[in-house]
Design a protein that fits this description.
heterodimer, A: about 750 residues, alpha/beta, Rossmann fold, Dimethylsulfoxide Reductase, domain 2, 3 domains, 6-stranded mixed beta sheet, globular, B: about 200 residues, mainly alpha, two-stranded antiparallel sheet, 10 helices, binds iron/sulfur cluster
Chain lengths: ~750, ~200
């Protein structure tokens, strides 16, 4: 036995034990981690583990009202697709709609009622209970109502439709207030007004892109963001490729090429605000060529006398030959369709411009027929268009608030601090309102200034219903049902209002105990009225059928004989657009456009959409300013140069993106970024062009002429590399786009062996 | 000059000895863990016995695991299902009392998962208990081992030669082996299991 010293012995024992321990834990650490199998206490009836359950409901990410089918697994939302039975979306969906789960699972959602404890905007909030929150608000409302000062309460909401709209109306009315405002930056006020003037209807017609052969679009980015992009995309696809013998032609007239411009057969840049003049020149040509032979022909000739193609060519910058060509094609290709909106409607002459576009449809006989413009029937349920607040209405509100005439403001879903120009002074006016209550699900810029936050469910957790506007030519309604149990201590907007109503004893006009009740009650009436494709004896089976299908409707077509009033013809005419700011000081016209992904900024908190490249520039995560190469060269700028964009009302800073498809004196910026609040994904990213817009209005509607701001550009000498997925837009000898001469091409064609596959 | 490394080595000897012991210890520790704590048959919150239920009482597997024929997962029975029988049966046993206390507290039983495939494997029970599979002689036991003899469930798989191997989880080769034997259509395509 070798002699071993005590010290060495202890060393060895130590090493041995450390080794054993380490070995034990080594294996322990590479073991499969323990997982649990948690059973239900009582098995649920509406799903089975591991099996998808689909629920049909309604997308609420924009005002189009597409039907969606939500895939859920074990009671959780997994994926959203389009509802194939819904006539608006027909199984399709846009990027915004797809991103719905990120609204539900957003880490920045408000998880329960809050009360501001510090200064407004300090971000110091304390949790309160629903009872405390509702009582606090109800008590104040009760006092005001008792003192007959109910009109000092304002409910300011995003546009909502269906029975929630009705609930709002009744609630505000019961308070004795007339201040029910719906504010959305993108609400097409001028389009409604133009249709009211021309057709005498306060609703949008159905634009039948699907069956048209020739589309003239004046500024309406119908594939990207205009009114109902998913439905328009379906129509566009069908018109282009869905018919064996015809391929629709699409012409887009706008100063900056949008997604629709890129998809069109022809993109024509008219000077901003002159789209209406162009439309009238087309009309002029239609009349002078004798394409129109109606009884009121003489009236038209008289009113259009000043809009000859040559004159208008000079004003719009579009050559007279082009105008003639468009007019000929538009009149001779039947059915054709003219639509107008977007930037064309957002000028000081917006309504007149869109009336001129309607006139085109009238003159070539596109009204009330397939492939043209189809009149919509009365919607089957409540809508809120009458309460849509224009910019002027919002200014009046601001003025009232400043004078101390507003004592309680309840904000639901809309975010005017972000979507109103700073010139409106909305945020400052809020300071004069003693109590601001927000029902938003997120801490957006407006909610950050609220005193009490009663957070609402997301649309995937709430009951609701919708009657899409514009409709699809026949009555459609859809019920929106909760597809997941609420994740947090939030409540449906309707339930919050009902909670207040109960505390204020409004039971006789608002008798429902919950929003579900209210919706069901509304649909009971629809069932009793009859009609629609679901016909059942009992309401219960009707209700089940509607919930299962997710939609209710009736494919009938409204017979309409349209006669135009002579006074309308006499009122036709388009003034030159007005811009604010002198053109010497502010040489460029700012063209702000709704982002295809972030919309008006409401989707900036969804990372999927932040990282989705803009379809035209491929830029992600930020703002940029689009500039014609000639302009950029003149200013000595290249892509990524940071510039200051300054209007008479403010200044923002963004990097340049050199964009060939924009007029040289126009610069374009996407709306959507530039949030100061609204969660981790939205905050401090890019800039908000709405901020610097001039308070120029369209005088008839009072809506914001958001495309009528002049700006100047100053280089800062600094750079910010744009994050984008696109590489260089030039070929650089890489032979990516291969070209061949015409002669060579036909020779090639003849030599290509063609195999005919028998069907 | 004579240079030798021997003195140097000699000086290193104590360190080598310590290192060697450490390494030996490591092996012993690893082995001990693998032998006595294989973790392939974890103790469950309730000592539920498949031997009594599936073996002695011959309750069909899918009486409790109702999802297997319809879903990717076989599903564990809800607490109410257990209570459904045990309201009447063996109510005095301590384990049943435990079950009842879960039931009264409206709490789920936190069973520990024994058979677990990695997340990158798309396995569906539905296919493997379909009429085709049954016609080919595939039973629950084919993959899960002789469950009806086990008091506590233990990881089991089937070796290439068809014998059960206890404490050894399923691996790709074993799945493929069976797919080949039964000539499963697309049974060896990557995308069949990895999608
Ligand atoms: S267009 Fe997109 S965001 Fe709007 S409702 Fe349809 S899917 Fe939703």
């Amino acid at each position: 036995m070798p002699n071993i010293e005590r010290r060495d012995f202890l060393k060895l024992v130590g090493a041995g034990s450390v080794g054993v321990g380490a070995g034990f834990y080594l294996r322990e650490s590479i073991k499969h981690p323990m997982e649990h199998l948690i059973p239900h206490v009582v098995a649920p009836e509406d799903f089975s583990t591991g099996i998808d359950t689909w629920y049909n409901t309604v997308c609420s990410m924009c005002a189009a009202g597409c039907g969606i089918s939500v895939r859920t697994r074990e009671g959780r939302v997994k994926k959203i697709e389009g509802n194939p039975s819904h006539p608006v979306s027909q199984g399709r969906l846009c990027a915004l709609g797809q991103a719905g789960p990120q609204v539900l699972y957003n880490p920045d959602r408000l998880t329960g009622p809050l009360m501001q404890t510090g200064e407004r905007g300090s971000g110091a909030f304390a949790q309160i209970t629903w009872d405390e929150g509702l009582s606090k608000v109800a008590d104040r409302l009760d006092l005001l109502r008792a003192a007959e000062r109910g009109n000092r309460v304002c409910l300011l909401s995003q546009g909502v439709r269906g029975h929630l709209a009705q609930l709002f109306e009744r609630f505000v009315d019961q308070l004795g207030s007339e201040r029910l405002l719906h504010y959305d930056f993108d609400h097409p006020h001028t389009l409604y007004a133009a249709n009211q003037r021309f057709f005498g209807e306060q609703r949008l017609p159905y634009y039948d892109l699907k069956n048209t052969r020739y589309l003239l679009s004046f500024g309406a980015d119908y594939l990207g963001s205009w009114i109902s992009p998913v439905h328009h995309s379906l129509g566009f696809g069908h018109s282009r490729q869905g018919r064996p013998d015809v391929r629709g032609r699409f012409v887009q007239i706008e100063p900056r090429m949008s997604l629709s411009g890129a998809a069109a057969d022809e993109w024509i840049a008219a000077r901003p605000g002159t789209e209406g003049l162009l439309a009238l020149a087309v009309a002029h040509h239609i009349l002078s060529k004798g394409y129109y032979q109606g009884a009121d022909r003489a009236d038209w000739i008289a009113v259009l006398a000043g809009y000859t193609t040559t004159e208008v060519a000079a004003q719009t910058g579009v050559p007279a030959e082009t105008i003639v060509r468009l007019a000929d094609a538009f009149a001779q290709t039947q059915p054709s369709l003219a639509i107008g909106g977007g930037s064309a409607g957002n000028h000081s002459n917006g309504v007149d411009t869109l009336v001129a576009v309607n006139a085109l449809n009238y003159l070539v006989g596109n009204l009330g027929k397939a492939g043209g413009l189809v009149f919509n029937p009365e919607p089957a349920g409540p809508t809120t268009h009458p309460h849509q607040a224009s910019y002027r209405t919002m200014l009046e509100f601001v003025e009232d608030a400043r004078r101390g005439n507003i004592e309680v403001l309840i904000v639901n879903g809309t975010n005017p601090v972000f979507t109103l120009p700073s010139a409106a002074g909305f945020a400052e006016a809020l300071a004069e309102i003693p109590l601001i209550v927000s029902l938003s699900s997120f801490l957006d810029e407006t909610t950050a200034l609220a005193d009490v936050i009663l957070p609402s469910h997301t649309y995937l957790e709430s009951w609701g219903d919708d009657f899409p506007e514009p409709g699809v030519g026949f009555p459609v309604g859809a019920v929106s049902q909760p597809v997941a149990s609420p994740l947090y201590d939030t409540r449906a907007t309707g339930d919050i209002i009902l909670g207040l109503a109960q505390r204020l004893d409004m039971n006789d006009v608002l008798p429902w105990s919950s929003m579900e009740d209210c919706i069901k009650d509304g649909w009971r009436q629809i069932h009793e009225r009859g009609g629609g494709d679901v016909r059942t004896e009992s309401f219960e089976s009707f209700w089940r059928a509607v919930l299962t299908a997710g939609v209710w409707g009736e494919e009938t077509h409204r017979e309409s004989t349209f006669t135009l009033d002579k006074s309308v013809i006499a009122g036709i005419g388009v003034q030159a657009p007005e811009f604010s700011g002198a053109s010497d000081d502010y040489p460029f016209i700012l063209h702000p456009y709704l982002s295809t992904t972030l919309h008006d900024g409401r989707a900036a908190n969804l990372p999927w959409l932040q990282e989705l490249p803009d379809p035209m520039t491929s830029v992600v995560y930020g703002s940029w300013v689009e500039m014609n190469p000639v302009t950029a060269k003149g200013l000595g700028l290249t892509e990524g140069d940071l510039v200051d964009i300054e209007s008479p009302h403010g200044r923002i800073r963004a990097p340049v993106y050199v964009y060939p498809a924009i007029m040289p004196d126009v610069i374009a910026m996407p709306i959507g970024q530039g949030h100061a609040e609204y969660g981790r994904y939205a905050r401090n990213r890019g800039v908000n062009p709405i901020e610097i817009l001039s308070p120029q209005m369209e005088p008839q509607t009072g809506s914001l002429a958001s495309s009528a701001t002049r700006v100047k550009i100053t280089a800062t000498g600094r750079r910010a590399e744009l994050v984008k997925t696109g590489g260089n837009s030039r070929d650089l000898g890489r032979n990516i786009v291969q070209t061949t001469g015409a002669g060579q091409h036909s020779a090639n064609l003849n030599s290509i062996p063609i195999t005919v596959i028998p069907s | 000059m004579n240079v030798s490394i021997v003195p140097g080595l000699r000086a290193l000897r104590p360190a080598a000895l310590v290192g060697g012991t450490l390494f030996l210890g490591l092996l012993v520790g690893y082995w001990a863990n693998a032998t006595w704590y294989p973790g392939t048959s974890p103790e469950q919150p309730i000592e539920f016995s498949h031997r009594i239920h599936a073996g002695e009482n011959e309750i069909p597997c899918m009486y409790c695991h109702t999802q297997a024929r319809r879903s990717i997962s076989a599903g564990v029975p809800s607490v109410s299902k257990c209570v459904g029988c045990h309201k009447e049966i063996a109510t005095e046993r301590p384990q049943i009392r435990k079950l009842m206390s879960y039931w009264q507290n409206e709490e789920p039983i936190p069973w520990i998962k024994v058979h677990d495939l990695p997340d990158f494997v798309h396995f569906t029970h539905k296919r493997h208990v379909s009429a085709y599979a049954r016609a080919a002689g595939i039973e629950c036991q084919t993959c899960h081992g002789p469950v009806e003899t086990m008091d506590r469930i233990r990881v089991t798989s089937r070796a290439i030669d068809g014998s059960f191997q206890l404490d050894t989880p399923w691996e790709m080769g074993l799945c493929l082996n069976c797919h080949r034997q039964h000539q499963v259509e697309h049974g060896t395509d990557c995308w069949t299991c990895h999608k």
